[in-house]
Write a structure and sequence with these properties.
mainly beta; Methylamine Dehydrogenase, Chain H
Length: 350
């Protein structure tokens, strides 16, 4: 049994963050609790699962990072505090391995925001706002920077940030000195991807040797060799053959054998790739149709199920993963919820 935390958009019937229990052997899910918060479109937990952080993704109004404590016995979330991001439309966030710092990617603000946390999980006022500049080649979508994802390297030494608006992945060094800001702004390094790609989300391979990027506008997945903060492109492969310019998320099985890429706007579904463990290259092996507008995906830690949050058909689908070829089978045990867009697992206290 695991807890499944679900972030939603709250313009309709949803009211915030939802907690379910999920049986990872059968796929059965049961509602546990809900915490009211506006537009928590992305959430993360500290490594010990004591605290949950969620964005409030607003465009015209102030946007926030929100802090909650989590009770693993009851599955209840308790609001702690919130801090303004000083950047519009935060759509993604991450927390460092020690649980001491939270970073948001501000899509509308073209920036990332850095917060400290204390021992009670509360967020400080924003400590750093790092801004970006430039534009891309896709008119209307790349007229300005649009930071879409932030993620720490497995060793915590670096922070990576994807910029959909300028076709760059940025890398920063981190520091744990109390005399210096946590993110070293002067260490900024960038890695260019193909013009018009629109880099969206990244995931590290479980081995730590590879990093994979889903490109929203090009509908492609780009693989990189990863070594101590450095990226070397090894492959770009098509995930969306309909050129819908709406690729969403990327997920990798815990054993590192398969990669999944969600695609929206036309032919909604998930592209399936087999991963060569020797060189990190992908081979497309299938495509699984889903509900409408698949966003975030998550794989159970046992590798048995892939869950897909379909924003516009208002459901979360559970697919059984074939361990031999990565193929997906809808087990017909949908979780029905208005505008689900983010899925995260937490362990249940025994």
């Amino acid at each position: 049994m695991l807890y499944l935390l679900i972030g939603t958009y709250t313009m309709g019937a949803s009211e915030g963050l939802y907690v379910y229990q999920l049986n990872t052997m059968t796929g059965e899910a049961a509602y546990v609790s809900m915490a009211k918060v506006d537009n928590p479109s992305y959430l993360v937990s500290t490594p010990d699962n004591r605290f949950i952080y969620a964005v409030t993704e607003n465009n015209g109004n102030p946007s926030y990072a929100n802090a909650f404590s989590f009770d693993p016995e009851s599955g209840q979330l308790t609001f702690i505090n919130r801090s303004e991001t000083a950047g519009a439309s935060p759509c993604n966030m991450t927390v460092d391995t020690a649980g001491n710092h939270v970073v948001t990617a501000n899509y509308g603000g073209g920036s990332i925001s850095v917060f400290d946390t204390n021992t009670e999980g509360a967020l400080s006022p924003v400590k750093q706002v790092i801004t970006f500049s430039g534009q891309g080649t896709e008119k209307g979508r790349q007229n300005a920077p649009h930071l879409h994802c932030v993620k720490f390297s497995p060793d915590g030494k670096y922070l990576f940030a994807t910029d959909l608006g300028t076709d760059h992945i940025y890398r920063f060094e981190t520091t744990h000195s109390e005399k210096e800001p946590f993110i070293k702004e002067d260490s900024r390094t960038s890695f260019k991807v193909t013009d018009g790609s629109g880099p969206r989300h990244i995931e590290f391979h479980p081995s730590g040797k590879y990093l994979y990027l889903i490109n929203e506008l090009a509908g492609t997945v780009t693989g990189f060799l990863y070594n101590n903060g450095n990226l070397k492109e090894i492959q770009t492969i098509v995930a969306d053959t309909l050129n819908a310019k709406g690729s969403g998320d990327i997920a990798i099985t815990p054993d590192g054998q398969f990669v999944y890429a969600s695609n929206r706007l036309k032919g909604d579904g998930v592209a399936i790739f087999a991963l060569n463990q020797k060189d990190g290259k992908l081979a497309k092996t299938g495509y699984q149709p889903t509900g409408v507008h698949p966003r975030n995906m998550v794989i159970t830690p046992n590798g048995k199920f892939l869950l897909v949050a379909n924003k516009d058909s208002h459901n979360i689908q559970l697919f059984a993963i074939n361990p031999e070829n990565g193929a997906l089978t809808d087990i017909q045990k949908d979780i029905l919820l208005d505008s689900p867009v983010c899925l995260k697992f937490l362990s249940i206290q025994e």
